[in-house]
Automatic annotation (TrEMBL):
<dbReference type="GO" id="GO:0005829">
    <property type="term" value="C:cytosol"/>
</dbReference>
<keyword id="KW-0808">Transferase</keyword>
<protein>
    <recommendedName>
        <fullName>PABS domain-containing protein</fullName>
    </recommendedName>
</protein>
<dbReference type="InterPro" id="IPR030373">
    <property type="entry name" value="PABS_CS"/>
</dbReference>
<dbReference type="InterPro" id="IPR037163">
    <property type="entry name" value="Spermidine_synt_N_sf"/>
</dbReference>
<dbReference type="Pfam" id="PF17284">
    <property type="entry name" value="Spermine_synt_N"/>
</dbReference>
<dbReference type="GO" id="GO:0004766">
    <property type="term" value="F:spermidine synthase activity"/>
</dbReference>
<dbReference type="InterPro" id="IPR029063">
    <property type="entry name" value="SAM-dependent_MTases_sf"/>
</dbReference>
<keyword id="KW-0620">Polyamine biosynthesis</keyword>
<feature type="active site" description="Proton acceptor">
    <location>
        <position position="200"/>
    </location>
</feature>
<comment type="similarity">
    <text>Belongs to the spermidine/spermine synthase family.</text>
</comment>
<feature type="domain" description="PABS">
    <location>
        <begin position="44"/>
        <end position="281"/>
    </location>
</feature>
<dbReference type="GO" id="GO:0008295">
    <property type="term" value="P:spermidine biosynthetic process"/>
</dbReference>
<dbReference type="InterPro" id="IPR001045">
    <property type="entry name" value="Spermi_synthase"/>
</dbReference>
<dbReference type="InterPro" id="IPR035246">
    <property type="entry name" value="Spermidine_synt_N"/>
</dbReference>
<dbReference type="Pfam" id="PF01564">
    <property type="entry name" value="Spermine_synth"/>
</dbReference>
<dbReference type="InterPro" id="IPR030374">
    <property type="entry name" value="PABS"/>
</dbReference>
Length: 372
């Protein structure tokens, strides 16, 4: 697919071939001629996302100008200025972020886990080459070490150039950048090193598909301290229910603390929503549903002189409220599962209410309902 509307014709001086130049590319070349060229996802001035995970729909953004296109060893990178959402980053034709709504994703994927545990000190980010998750972690002054493992150096370089308000996170002296494969990196990490791991990956295709396999979750769990937490991007509840079910099933087998699904609204993602999988290892109980470490009370909340635009404690709690259809779908995974934790806390995950009767009154008071 290519740009279909032609504004003028030029002659290739070397080959004498007449080539059509679409208007979207003319405008782009006029503003950044050395970097902006036509792109197959831009048709008549509109970017349309061709997403494998959402074959039943298409989402389009009006393009003001194409700022950059290039190809790394792993993926194609496109940056363009949109009419309504500011600058947009797309990888392999899939929108990763826009300046207007990136706050919803970046703030939630970061503060949902970090505000659920007291005083996190060692945090690992997997992916996140745009730097925005680092920006959000920097608000937590208790954090001493921020490791980031990003496989694609070109993503980092492009985002530093075109998205300085996001990549500012790399300026934090606590950040240690590792350009490497995440699975290999975690295999070498000391057991129990991290308080939290945040997996800010692209869709689970290509290199990122390794990040939804049981083998990955197993080494991630080993890298967390007792009572440590993992937050993993978990796609759309409207379009990817089977993937969510598979991830939840795998994580219930792997993480011996608690497993929760949360979600938020991001307009430029398929169906306008994105999910998060939150898991904790066996150890001190983690109640994801109620932030014990509220960001509003932290001195670093205004880091980089930037106020939080989306996340707050109310949004934190609301993220775990699930629609009825999703509760029903997830019950196929969690129905009647009972786990006994080392702290003598019974954890029911979406179990039928009548099963509570098998517990005594003390045990009932210690139940943790993961899905309401």
């Amino acid at each position: 697919m290519g740009c279909s509307v032609v504004e003028r014709i030029r002659t290739d001086g070397d080959k004498g071939v007449r080539k059509a130049i679409p208007p979207c590319c003319l405008k782009a070349m006029g503003t950044c001629p050395s970097e902006a060229k036509c792109h197959e996802t831009v048709v008549a001035g509109w970017f349309s996302e061709g997403r494998i995970w959402a074959l039943c729909e298409a989402h389009s953004l009006k393009v003001e100008r194409i700022l950059y296109r290039g190809k790394s060893d792993y993926q194609e990178i496109l940056v363009f200025e949109s009419s309504g959402y500011g600058k947009v980053l797309a990888l392999d034709g899939i929108v990763q972020l826009t300046e207007k709504d990136e706050c919803a994703y970046q703030e939630m994927i970061t503060h949902l886990p970090l505000c659920s545990i007291p005083s996190p000190k060692n945090v690992l980010v997997i992916g996140g080459g745009d730097g925005a998750v680092l920006r959000e972690i920097s608000r937590h002054l208790s954090v001493e070490v921020i490791d980031i493992c990003e496989i694609d150096q070109m993503v980092i370089d492009v985002c530093r150039k075109f998205f300085p308000n996001l990549s500012v996170g790399f300026e934090d002296p606590r950040v240690q950048l590792h350009v490497a494969d995440a699975v290999d990196f975690l295999k070498k990490a000391p057991a129990g090193k991290y308080d939290a791991i945040i997996v800010d990956s692209s869709d689970p295709i290509g290199p990122a598909q390794e990040l939804v396999k049981k083998s990955f979750f197993e080494i991630a769990a080993m890298s967390l301290r007792p009572g440590g937490v993992l937050c993993n991007q978990a796609e759309s509840m409207w379009l990817h229910t089977h993937l969510i079910q598979d991830m939840l099933s795998t994580c219930c087998e792997t993480f011996k603390g608690s497993v929760h699904f949360a979600w938020t609204s991001v307009p430029t993602y398929p169906s306008g929503t994105i999910g998060f999988l939150l898991c904790s290892t066996e150890g001190p109980p983690v109640n994801f549903l109620d932030p014990v470490n509220p960001i509003e009370k932290q001195e670093g909340a205004l880091k980089f002189r930037r106020e939080l635009r989306f996340y707050n404690s109310e949004m934190h709690r609301a993220a775990f409220a699930l629609p009825s259809f999703l509760k029903k779908e997830l019950s196929t995974v969690y129905n009647s599962q009972l786990r006994y934790c080392s702290s003598s806390v019974y954890v029911f995950v979406f179990s039928p209410p009548h099963l509570i009767s098998v517990l005594d009154s003390t045990a009932r008071q210690r139940l943790v309902w993961a899905f309401g």
